[in-house]
């Protein structure tokens, strides 16, 4: 799951000319749900959204208070486009959870936020609608969150796989390694005064 969290002085959502919801000072949260998200991702996101210290304390010290500490509001907006993967210049959204599955999943997030905080402090847009989101960013302060179990970008995953293959290649060259070991001098193995511990070390090297 991905989230864009913005500290705001005001934020509102409308569909066409119809106002849906609005908040004063607090957080506007854009949520992108992926195909692989589970309750674990929900728990992580809810905990982070409500506990991120993005506000000043009563003495003006920055980054000291959370939205719950300040008793501010949270406006959530479902945004599947956060799960975009670019194919050239064209966005692809196959990583996003389909609407028939993501709507109850999104509602579960809202309920979790409301039960953890205060129901009246959690607002949301209109799921699946073409919305206009009006945000007055305070700072500006914008935080990107990705839940730990979110799927990795295919390009990043392929890069990691190649790096892992490079690391594993020397291990697969058994004959070459054995040849290098045979060519290497072994004074400790031939030393009659060598301790049993040293002999053990050399023996271990031969076996690897």
From TrEMBL:
E.C. designation(s): 3.1.1.96
Biased composition (Basic and acidic residues): 156-167
Gene3D superfamilies: D-tyrosyl-tRNA(Tyr) deacylase
Highest taxon in the source lineage: Eukaryota
Signal peptide positions (record): none
Region named Disordered: 144-208
UniProt xrefs under CDD domains: Dtyr_deacylase
Cross-referenced InterPro entries: Daa-tRNA_deacyls_DTD (IPR003732), DTD-like_sf (IPR023509)
A GO CC annotation given for this chain: cytoplasm
EC class of the enzyme, as a word: hydrolase
One Pfam assignment: Tyr_Deacylase
GO molecular function: D-tyrosyl-tRNA(Tyr) deacylase activity; tRNA binding
Reaction equations catalysed: a D-aminoacyl-tRNA + H2O = a tRNA + a D-alpha-amino acid + H(+); glycyl-tRNA(Ala) + H2O = tRNA(Ala) + glycine + H(+)
Subcellular localization(s) per the UniProt record: Cytoplasm
Keyword set, alphabetical order: Cytoplasm, Hydrolase, RNA-binding, tRNA-binding
Family: Belongs to the DTD family.
NCBIfam families named in the record: D-aminoacyl-tRNA deacylase
Family annotation (PANTHER family): D-AMINOACYL-TRNA DEACYLASE 1, D-TYROSYL-TRNA TYR DEACYLASE
Protein name: D-aminoacyl-tRNA deacylase
Species lineage: Eukaryota, Metazoa, Chordata, Craniata, Vertebrata
